[in-house]
Amino acid sequence: MTTPSVLFVCVHNAGRSQMAAGFVRALAGDRIEVRSAGSMPAEQINPIAVAAMAEVGIDITAEQPKVLTTEAVQASDAVITMGCGDACPFFPGKRYEDWGLEDPAGQGIEAVRPIRDDIRARVEALVAELAPLG
């Protein structure tokens, strides 16, 4: 059986998509291949997103925003967008979901925690679907 792969996409690849990828790595380990990218990547990950993830024991400090490529989309089974709209490439046969999540950019930790928790719940459901435990 091949390992399912998921690509999380948001505009800057600095907050939502990085938190989602961090949760997949923490919850699924090597059962799911994970990528994240942005249509207009930021210079660095949002430090508030890093702090919010650290609160739940997940370290995303080593991650860097990456530019969204056609190859990343083609190599993924599921493409989860987080508000990038028309900037996301579309390929027939791929599974697409759009998670309407508030952008944590420029927000304080109090505002980012509920976004993080929403992402965690969505990722838990996605992991259970893509790579259920025996």
TrEMBL record:
InterPro entries: Ptyr_pPase, Ptyr_pPase_sf. One of its GO terms (biological process) is response to arsenic-containing substance. It holds the Pfam family LMWPc. The keyword Transport does not apply. Keywords: Arsenical resistance. It comes from the Bacteria. This is Protein-tyrosine-phosphatase. It comes from Agrococcus jejuensis.
